[in-house]
Structure formats: structure tokens, C-alpha cells
Amino acid sequence: MLQSKLFTKVTKDAPKDEVSFNGKILIQAGFVDKLSAGVFTFLPLGLRVLNKICNIIRQEMDKIGGEEILMPVLVPKENWAQTGRWESFDVLFKLQGADEKEYALGATHEEVITPLGKKFVFSYRDLPIMPYQIQTKFRNELRAKSGIMRGREFLMKDMYSFHADQADLDRFYEVAKHAYYKIFERLGLGEITYLTYASGGAFSKYSHEFQTLCQAGEDIIYICDNCKIAINKEIIAEQNQCPICGNKEFREDKAVEVGNIFKLANRFSQAFDLQYLDKDGVKKELVMGCYGIGPSRVMGAIVEVSHDEKGIIWPKEIAPFQVHLILLGKKDSWEKNKAEADKLYEKLTAEDVEVLYDEREDKGPGEKFAEADLIGCPVRLVISDKTLAEESVEVKMRNSVDSKLVKINGLIKDLIK
Ligand code: ATP
Ligand code: MG
Known about the structure:
Elements: H1 21-28, E1 32-36, E2 39-42, H2 44-63, E3 67-68, E4 74-76, H3 77-83, H4 85-88, E5 94-96, E6 102-105, H5 110-120, E7 131-138, E8 153-163, H6 166-186, E9 193-199, E10 206-213, E11 219-224, E12 229-232, H7 233-236, E13 251-265, H8 267-271, E14 275-277, E15 283-285, E16 287-293, H9 295-305, E17 307-308, E18 311-312, E19 323-327, H10 334-350, E20 355-358, H11 365-375, E21 379-383, H12 385-388, E22 392-397, E23 403-407, H13 408-416
Parallel strand pairs: 3-7, 9-12, 19-20, 19-21
Antiparallel strand pairs: 1-2, 4-6, 5-6, 7-8, 8-16, 9-10, 10-13, 11-12, 11-13, 13-16, 14-15, 17-18, 21-22, 22-23
Helix pairs in contact: 1-9, 2-6, 2-9
């Protein structure tokens, strides 16, 4: 993509009305725009990152049998009333339709997926199923001061699983847990993301959160370094030893909940009277699990943990572009340098390398470098009088201070391998 064509611009200063670090830097670098507290537009750079996060999640969900769907955002009151959550879910946005019918904007989707399951699940042969969606959720959050980490409108991947019995739910729950580990590893968060024991509700002792260490996070967790798991502060009083090794020595740290998996058991199947016929033709109640991840929160968390004083440092798999190519030149060398840089840009894009190409003539080197550091693509390439004198390109990784000159031809082979 040509940087001159990007309709969004990097701004000199961070916005003053945003308190969170991720919000400040993502707005300044032109990844998102804030419409109001907790409500954001994802701009071209930001949407590229968000889509990459979603695609990683999608791939891992598909691998474990997930089937992607898209449920409505507008959910009628009677669905919520059936589970008692019209009253008890405290952050629902409620509204009235033209037909005087009342709705809530989807804050979670058990009230839609369970009656949906009822239309397709009749017998043990129809189980298990694992539908999921990636969709905008709405929650009237009291505090929305964590940038895109706590939105009133945010993206969620929510998977729901339906099983014939508890044993099958338990089996799939472990499969989903492993898929989550894989996702956070691919997102570059593997080392600092802990499976965290949290309260489980009426039907299981625990639920599990995936908590990423982050000073801007709103949760406090207690880590068992032997087992690399953690316990959420909310249950540490009743769970004062590691559930795996019995250790009582914990390391306290701040974290953000990036994912949550939960055995719902029959909480929703019962509410909607969802049953199936087992092998002997006997009617049985089925059990469910739910599995959430917040892609927009994940994006904010990555910014919080992966940056330096100059800007964002994106992990390779989710960077908006792999390469930021910068063209420099003087008045008399501009056209010649541009011809070389254009050629390199075309070659790389033809090989499917994602390149953001800063070919703007009205910006000086200082400004271009500062913007590249702020935006945070993994590889920076510079073409200038100096590099072309050696038929070379200057290569610098965002996460390193060193740069080196590399012959243009060799470079292409290196980058596309
Ligand atoms: P929290 O405890 O942070 O309020 P939650 O426990 O209510 O979150 P879930 O209902 O389990 O969250 O939602 C699944 C996932 O959606 C969370 O793990 C998180 O990644 C994401 N998420 C939840 N609320 C928000 C929000 N307001 N903004 C962005 N992402 C969110
Ligand atoms: Mg939570």
C-alpha cells in the first residue's frame, strides 16, 4: 500500500482525552479512532491487525471442529426473559423496536445459540456440535478507560459446544483449552499468558480464564511458577493452593483477561428445554460449554506489552504490514531513487510480501523514520542516495537497533523465503 494514499494520518502528538496507553498510541498512529468512550472505528491499519488476529482464532477454531456462523445483534426480550438474564445481566443495552417489541443488543449469545440448537439437534447422532462466531458485542460497561481493552462495543469470538453428556463436554473442554494455548502462542503472547482458575458457577468448580500479564490490566492473578498456571484473585481465598501441585507460594501480578472458557452444563439447555434422544430412544438433557476471546482486547493488550518509547512493536503474524519501505532522496536524485524503490515495492508485493511504501515527497527522513517506529512494522527498508551507491537497501528490524546494507537482489530472496 502506498502511504500517500492512506486516508488516515499519523499525528504528532497523542490525544489528550485518552488515558490508556493502547488507546493513545493506536489513535496517534492511525490504527483506530475514538467516537466516544469505549466506542472505536478501526481504520485501515487497525483493521488489518484485527483481521489477522481474527484469522488466527478462526483457523484454530476450525481445526477443532468449529463451524462459523453469524448470529443477530438484535436479540428479543423474550429470549433473555427465558433465562432470567433480561433482569440479571447488568450491562445489557436495551431498546425498543417499531413494533413496540423490546430487544437487547447482544452482549453474549447463549440466548440465541440454545434455541438455534433446538432446531437442529434431535438425536445423539447430531452431537456434539461446536458453532462459533466472531461478532460485535455490546455491553454498557461502567468504566471504559482502558482504550480498546474495554469497549462498550467490541469484537468477541464466542464458541458454544453442545454435548450428549458431561464426559464429552469434559473431553472437548480440554481440546478447546489446547486450541487457546495455540492461539495465544501464535499471537506472540504465549510466554506471558496464564491459564487462570476462576469461579465456575453452579455446575463446575472452576472456569478458566486466559490472563495476559499486563500492568494496564484490571485483574490480579496469583501465579504458580511450578505449573505455569494462575488463580484469579476472586477465588484465591477459597483456593489457597495450586490445584495442580499443591504449592502455596504464588507470585502476584496484574493481568488482562483475554479469553474465558466455561462449562455451562445444563444452565441454558434447561432454560430452553433442549433435549435429545439417546441410543435407547430415551429423552435426555444435553450439556453445553462456552469459549470466548476478545480480538479487539487482544490487540490492545499486545500494544500494552509490545512497544518501546518510539512506538508499537507488532509481532510478525499480526503486523499490519511485514515491511515498511521508505524512500529518501534529494531534489536531483528523487526520480532515480523512486524508480528503484518502485521496482522493489512491485517485486515484493508480487511475491505477496505485505509492504507499506512511504513514497511521500513532502516528508523528510526524520518524520518518516518516526512514523515507521510509531506504526511498528517488523522490517524497515530504506532506499536512499547512500544505499543505492552500494546497489543496496538498508534493512532494520523494528525490535533491534542495528541496521545493515543488503544488496537489493539478495534481499528479495531473503524476504520471500
Ligand atoms: P471482564 O471480566 O473483563 O469484564 P468478562 O468476564 O465479562 O470480561 P466474557 O463475558 O467471558 O468476559 O467475554 C469473553 C471475552 O470477551 C473476554 O475474555 C474478553 O477477552 C472479551 N471482552 C469482554 N468484555 C470486553 C470488553 N468490554 N471490551 C473488550 N473485550 C471484552
Ligand atoms: Mg471476567
